[in-house]
Amino acid sequence: MVRRKSQKQNNHNPFTHQEARSTLTHYGTQSVRVGSDSQLPFGHCALSLNPITDAVVSPSGTLYEREAAVSYLMREMEKLKVWREAYEQQCENDAKEKAEQVCKFRPSEDVEKSDDDLPLLLLGCVALAPHINNILN
Fold first, then answer.
1. Which residue ranges does the record assign to the Nitric oxide synthase-interacting protein zinc-finger domain (predicted)?
2. Is there a contact between 45 and 54 (Cβ–Cβ < 8 Å)?
3. Which of 16, 87, 110, 133 qualifies as a FRET site for 30, CA 20 to 30 Å off?
4. Quick one: CA dihedral 30, 31, 32, 38, positive or negative?
5. How far is CA 116 from the centre of its chain?
6. 65 burial class (0-12, 13-18, 19+ CB within 10 angstroms)?
7. How far, in Å, CA of 82 to CA of 90, rounded?
8. Is the CB of residue 47 less than 8 Å from the CB of residue 72?
9. Mind listing the pLDDT tens digit for each residue in 35-51?
């Protein structure tokens, strides 16, 4: 038995009247259109924005000029080198501060000071010396 056309599947509009009015009426209006100044002309480099003479294509399909891509990569490598040196310097400073904190010893006031405690303190710092050297190097 054949069902009526009105009861068939996919016979309804997926948008309500309000959704269609708010969404579909804005499509293609002047305020939503993308201007030509924001679009890259065909055959132009994405980095230098000039026409390409020696083209290189990224895996995502973006066109670059070889010279512009290499110079960009070299600039970024220099930036990364500077950042890495600053990071390593900061890590070295942090390790030195930690080493100073570990070797710092303040005897409590209720414990009598004696020369017998000095070898234990030195033993503690000597035991930590290889670990501290590994951190610093």
1. 23-75
2. no
3. 16
4. positive
5. 54
6. buried
7. 12
8. yes
9. 777 778 888 988 888 99
